[in-house]
Specification:
The protein has 2 domains: 83 residues, RNA polymerase sigma factor, region 2, helix turn helix motif (Rna Polymerase Sigma Factor, Chain: A, Orthogonal Bundle), CATH 1.10.1740.10; 86 residues, Arc Repressor Mutant, subunit A. It has 8 helices and no strands. The chain has 180 residues and is an all-alpha fold.
């Protein structure tokens, strides 16, 4: 990461801002897509995140973290904001009723593409997906997740456990469907 580019963007250089955007837009949009099931919501989050990134650029401290990670947190937070705003982020305890069948065996030899795994993650209920993304993909702790989502640490741990379990079941089910 070229810190001169960030400095120039801080000084409102349009060309530096455009260069930063072009360098990270795919990375940022991928983060948005992890939180939203449709591209329209992902685009809204992306737009909101861009406004936040460039308006808060003066707060970025290179000595504390890399620009990529600093900006990724803003993108994730904006995605979560939109989920909250649309009332899509709520407790997911009722989803347990949907998991009627227990999976007895796992197929460790099944290999899935990244695209297939992303599809499965998108099928998770919003709360499970948010906790899974924050913990697994973004590297937040359960304490941080509880603060971000305004849930208890226990709920964060529970939803991560249930998200992983649900993903395992989807993987096994997909493997069984392929063998038919």
């Amino acid at each position: 990461m070229n810190l001169d580019l960030v400095q120039k963007a801080r000084e409102n250089s349009r060309s530096a801002q455009t260069a930063l955007y072009n360098q990270y837009k795919s990375y940022w949009f991928t983060i948005c897509l992890r939180y939203h099931k449709n591209r329209a919501d992902a685009n809204d989050s992306m737009q909101n995140a861009m406004v936040q990134i460039f308006s808060k650029l003066h707060q970025f401290e290179p000595s504390r973290c890399e620009f990529k990670h600093w900006s990724a947190r803003i993108v994730a937070n904006e995605s979560l904001q939109l989920l909250r705003k649309n009332s899509k982020l709520m407790s997911i305890e009722v989803v347990d009723d949907l998991l009627e069948e227990r999976v007895e065996e796992q197929h460790d030899d099944e290999i899935f593409s990244q695209q297939e795994l992303m599809r499965m993650i998108h099928e998770l209920p919003d709360g499970y997906r948010a906790v899974f993304n924050l913990y697994v993909m973004e590297g937040y702790t359960h304490v941080e997740i509880s603060e971000i989502l305004n849930i208890s640490v226990g709920t964060s741990k529970s939803q991560l456990f249930k998200a992983r379990k649900m993903l395992k079941e989807m993987i096994v089910e997909t493997g069984q469907m392929a063998s038919l």
